[in-house]
Amino acid sequence: MPTRKPRRYARYAALTLAVGGTGLLLASCAMSPPNPNPRADVPLKLANVDLPRYMGRWYIVANIPYFLEKDLVGSNTTYTLRDDGKVLEDFAARKGGFDGEAKTYQFVNTPDPSTGNAHWSVRLFWPLYGSQDTLYVDDAYEYTLIGYKNKRLGWIFARSPEMSDAKYRELLQKFDAQGYDTSRFRRVPQKPEDLGKSGYQSPGQPTP
Q1: DSSP code of 175?
Q2: Cβ–Cβ contacts within 10 Å for residue 162, how many?
Q3: Distance between the two ends of the chain, CA-based, in angstroms?
Q4: What is the Cα–Cα distance from 48 to 34, expressed in whole angstroms?
């Protein structure tokens, strides 16, 4: 696989700003509505991750919208386990619509074995690092939930770009059990016919 210079991608750039305690993400979070979930202050419970099974393509089915992932559609990411135990990540999406500009980025992630490989340090570009936590992965490794400790950021990943409404609600319930405000999640369009549907993000819409 060719090596590309890591570039800033929305999700991880936001996490870096949150870790650093400065920047636009904090301003955005400060303006976010209060979390009404009665479990909002309960610490996140992390999953145990079998890294070889976790590798491969994941589609970003839904997230909590924020300004750095605005206007992306068809988002997906591919994980590859390196010999040194780190995980190479290749992200792809289109900006503004399915006929929009293709975006590709590459990152290096370092799982923490002491957390069951759930907590990852993410190298954006030296010396900036972010982080992410795996909150859930099903037995078949078809679905996974990614979160962040302040519960203002969250993502639903799936092996397929298609997800039934019932499965989506089931996965949202798992976020609810972890103390998230699930009303803030929106689905990411994975095909043109998703655009304009209720509950989906639409390019050009204001970020909540």
Answers
A1: H
A2: 11
A3: 37
A4: 30
- SS3 of 28, please? helix
Helix, strand, coil percentages for the chain (3-state, nearest 5)? 25, 35, 45
Token couple for 57: 């393509």
Long-range contacts of 75-82 (CB under 8 A, 24+ apart): 75/188, 75/190, 76/161, 77/157, 79/54, 79/55, 79/109, 80/1, 80/55, 81/51, 81/52, 81/55
pLDDT digits (tens, 9 = 90+) for 27-50: 344 456 899 999 999 999 999 999
d(CA 82, CA 88): 7
Residue 143 to residue 46: CA distance in whole angstroms:
15
Residue in 115, 135, 141, 132 with CA at minimum distance from that of residue 182: 135
Three-state DSSP state, 19: helix
Query: Is pTM beyond 0.70 here?
Result: yes
Contact, 88 vs 79, CB < 8 A? yes
Q: What is the mean pLDDT of the segment spanning 79-83?
A: 98
> Would you say 203 and 97 are in contact if contact means Cβ atoms under 8 Å apart?
yes
Please list the residues that pair with 186 across neighbouring strands: 63
* Cα separation, 155 vs 142, whole angstroms: 14
CA dist 178 and 39 (Å) reads 7
Report the C-alpha gap between 58 and 39 in whole angstroms: 28
